[in-house]
Amino acid sequence: MIKRLHTIKGDFFGGIIASIIALPQALxxxxxxxxxxxxxxxxxxxxxxxxAIFGLNCPIISGPTGPSAxxxxxxIALNGGDLSVVFLVLAFSAIIQMIISLTGIPSxxxxxxxxxxSGFLSGIGIIIIILQISPVLGGQNYSSTLxxxxxISFCLQNIxxxxxxxxxxxxxxxFLTPKFITKYIPSQIITLILxxxxxxxxxxxxxxxxxINFEIPKFALGSFDFSIFSTSLTIALSVSLVLSAESLxxxxxxxxxxxxxxxxKKLILSQGIGNLVCALFGSMQGSxxxxxxxxxxxxxxxxxxxxxxxxxxxxxxxxxFTPLISQIPICxxxxxxxxxxxxxxxLKIFKIIKHAPKDDILTLCAVIFLTVFYNLIFAIITGVVxxxxxxAKRVADNTNIKEKYNxxxxxxxxxxxxxxxxxxxxxxxxxxQFFFGSISQIISHFDEMLExxxxxxxxxSSHKLDMSAIFALEDIILRLDAQKINLCFVxxxxxxxxxxxxxxxxxxxxxxxxxxxxAIDYALNSIKKD
Length: 530
Prior knowledge:
Elements lengths: L1 H32 L3 H17 L8 E2 L2 H13 L4 H18 L4 H4 L5 H18 L1 H4 L8 H6 L1 H6 L3 H16 L2 H4 L4 H15 L24 H33 L5 H17 L6 E2 L1 H9 L6 H16 L1 H4 L4 H15 L13 H16 L2 H22 L2 E3 L8 H10 L4 E7 L7 H5 L10 E6 L7 H16 L3 E6 L2 H11 L6 E3 L2 H14 L1
Parallel strand pairs: 4-5, 5-6, 6-7
Antiparallel strand pairs: 1-2, 3-4
Helix pairs in contact: 1-2, 1-3, 1-15, 1-16, 1-18, 2-14, 2-16, 3-13, 4-13, 4-14, 6-18, 6-19, 6-20, 10-12, 10-18, 12-18, 13-14, 13-15, 19-20
């Protein structure tokens, strides 16, 4: 009983800390997304609650995050501000997220290359910072980085001095508050309170949140339109993957802190359920938030009850302090968002950038550029494809056909076999992996093999042949057959041998051996018979 009370106490204090961090972030992300501050805080309430109820027994605090804010802003821009369509797309993404949880995809997302993740997060950080240029100067919010950059000169010519001064003060507070203070009270909540008090005390003429209210969210979806579904499927899929990836990263962090393994599928399922409820009731979607989750854990939280407490505390704050929240200056939220944007930037990459492969740097820069200036969903897809192609190229470049004598007693036999046969028998090895990326290098070695009657080709890798490699092998056989050359394919790995043996049964004409000596004996005997 005492242990249970101690656990509840830890979860309660963890929930308080998480809600203190979540409040300014949810308000700021709501404004940045274009849905409004109310949608941001309601998103934090709904997602944190439902993701906890249906999720892991772990202090993962969910809610709006930087990537979700930028993605939603992007979807709003694509649909001309039609929120009924926006929430329909977000509902699709939540359903896809739940479907993903039933597959093996959650375990595959961890294989997304680091340059893609780093580039995407850094791009998001840059977008958040650029989008705050206008509000910091007292201007309006813009929905894209290009629009924000385009209107910089206009904003500089029409600066609201009071908003600029308040922004500078808030930036100083959020960046320079000493660590011994932020250890107990986050700098963002300090900035929120002091920025609002300064605005109130000096009666500054700056834009405020104003339109937030406690009204329970209403059903937000319009009528189902299949045309919207078909045109938005790619976007919805991308949103679900991004939010799932961010939640899984939070889950990995909590696993390392808790020293426990958790179900990635259950985590994604709970996030999908929470995001679906958010979309149905016009609130902002999100994911597991690493900063809030870690803060809750360090405050003593050990179970999902902390996320429930965080949700309820935010609900009470919204109910009791709505008039105060409505008086928060927009430029104060912009200062907080600039700090969040700087925190999202993956600056540690610069420590190793000089020593990183050029392929990784190219992928990183491409993802950052596309995220900031074109389309963040396209950026992720491009990054994964580019990283995959460059990786395949690296592997292919290291794959070749070589006269590589086997160190296990066959070197003399191989050399003797070639000499005794007057080089009518050639013994070659595939040095590396035989797959779609290495096909051209391998096939090119069989264009001209004059005077050769038998080629013994040994494949010692443990990597199975993909479809491209299988048909390339058939192409090699046809090329050699045209030159009246016989191919003996030697595979030492049992699984690959079974794979090719099964393919042979479907009409694939190939002499297959498990042992190189058997292939050599066959070739020598055949030459003697001739």
